[in-house]
Amino acid sequence: MSLDAVRAAGPFEPLDYAPAYRRVAAAIAGRIADRSFGEGEPLATETQLAAQFGVNRSTVREALRELESEGLLARRKGTKRMVVSRPSTAGLANRLSSALALQSVTVTEVWETLLVLEPQLAEAAARRRTADQLAALHQAAGRFAAPLPTSSGVHAPAFGVDAVVEFFSALGAATGNRALQLAHEPALRLLRSSLTLMIDRVPQARARIATAQRRLLAAIEARDAEAARNWMTKHIRDFRRGFELAGIDMASAVDVAA
């Protein structure tokens, strides 16, 4: 929407009730959500917004701070002026995974979510991936397959877990579907804690993950959507078996901090 169209929408209406800063934040967020304010567009100054809403500048400042923390606003470099932004996928995923953890989501629930989503992601990636996206998948798989670092002959704990999560994230990006990415990224962050516990308790876990990644890469490279779906289904089912062998209680709540 053009600036002229935004101006035609008129100023914000004064607020009648408290908490004022949240009402200010909600009103501005509404304009951002309906795209009346485009990405990168500067907001009015704090003084101007305070006059429009009929509140103190401190109220506006608190509202802008809240919207900035949510990723809807950002400060233009070298100035205090706020511009419209868009939350990053990582930021949204972190907030959603934290919310899920607060709901005491279990290992089983995370695993079932991945069993539904990941085969679909693998199939879509096989159909749509670009050369660069395929390269990102190979890079993640290569990181996981790298030799384990040692210190005094002892393996670093849970080495490679981040590479596994990176592989799944790269798979999501290769689908070209942002809604699917946003749906599965929070689950990946919750997967990390159980995978960290399992990966070095089950002797065959690393080899089986590496094999699954190689098979998935071959299918995605060949654009064989059926093989990609089938191998991902097998891969995710293998995780549950690994959790059980590691003695992880499938009914236990996941830990987002791991």
Q: Low-confidence spans: pLDDT under 50, at least 5 residues?
A: none
Average per-residue pLDDT, rounded, comes to 84
Terminal CA distance reads 42 Å
Structural class: mainly alpha
**Which strand-content bin applies to the residues?**
under 5%
Strands, count: 4
Please, could you describe this protein's structure?
It is a single chain. This protein has 258 residues and is mainly alpha-helical. The chain contains eleven helices and four strands. The strands form two sheets. It has a two-stranded antiparallel sheet. The longest helix is centred in the middle third of the chain and has 22 residues. The radius of gyration is 23 Å and the shape is elongated. The protein starts with a helix and ends in a 13-residue tail after the last helix.
Protein topology:
Elements: H1 3-8, H2 20-33, H3 46-53, H4 57-69, E1 73-75, E2 82-84, H5 89-102, H6 107-128, H7 131-145, E3 150-151, E4 154-155, H8 161-174, H9 178-198, H10 205-221, H11 225-245
Antiparallel strand pairs: 1-2, 3-4
